[in-house]
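During the reporting period, our protein records have gained a structure token line. A sample record is set out beneath this paragraph:
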Amino acid sequence: MCTSSTIDHITNLACQGTVVAVNTDLNSISDYELLLVTSEGLMVLPESSSDDYNHQYPAGTVVLRGHYFDKIAESRRNYKYKLLDVKIALIPKRAVIYVCVEHQETTFRHQKVYMLDYKDHEDILMCIID
């Protein structure tokens, strides 16, 4: 399980333009989503707020703001994701489990996609299991 200081270290690396993995189901050991951070790092909600996915958070919650990715293809070497930039998500600090340092983009089926290396996928799963 991640300690408070580990979570602080991970989330301090998350700034605008960073891709992070978030554990969207804190009871699951295999579910994660990728999020493109659009806020300038962590922010404290001044009042109760909800995001475009109808997740509600009380005032004082520390969150990142961003857009989710949707997985569109998978191979033995990597996973391909497209950005879902229509809806804005708020992610609580404790849900961030990994910062994707290598940011690879390419074109797949005439659309811009983000590629996650299989090794990064395995590292993310290890963070969830820890």
The longest strand covers residues 62-74. Residues 4-129 form one domain.
